[in-house]
Design a protein that fits this description.
Layout (H helix, E strand, L loop, with lengths): L1 E7 L4 E6 L2 H9 L13 E3 L15 H12 L1 E4 L2 H9 L8 E3 L3 H9 L17
Parallel strand pairs: 4-5
Antiparallel strand pairs: 1-2, 1-3
């Protein structure tokens, strides 16, 4: 099957499906095509851009890493420093977390040997 956009002598545009390009040509040569709006038998094919699909690109290593981090971590938001400290001290269950911390909070965590690592991306939950 092939779809063509057709235009009549009165500039009405409409789409129609044909079994093949040859089938369109046979109907056109026989004068069996007509405008769906005004009935004009003077119908021609319009210039069309082909519909081309491309395979979905393979995710980059950063996209794979981001997906893994977001799927396996709890986002604790602005409570990151408090939650990281609670996990380190055994007051909260050990698990991977992501969130936000200011410079002073990060320096305090590092000074207390609590491991932190900046992410090379902004989590999707905080993007528009």
């Amino acid at each position: 099957m092939i779809r063509y956009t057709l235009t009549c002598a009165n500039a009405h545009r409409f789409d129609s499906w044909f079994r093949s390009a040859d089938a369109y040509q046979v109907l056109s040569d026989a004068g069996q095509l007509a405008c769906m709006t005004c009935g004009s038998a003077r119908v021609t094919k319009s210039v069309m851009a082909p519909s081309v699909t491309t395979p979905k690109p393979e995710p980059t290593p950063l996209e794979k890493f981001r997906a893994h981090v977001e799927a396996t971590s709890d986002d604790v938001g602005t409570g990151f420093a408090q939650e990281a400290r609670a996990i380190h001290e055994g007051r909260a269950p050990e698990r991977p977390i992501i969130g936000q911390a200011n410079g002073a909070e990060v320096r305090d965590l590092i000074a207390d040997d609590i491991p932190v690592l900046p992410l090379p991306f902004v989590p999707r939950r905080r993007t528009n």
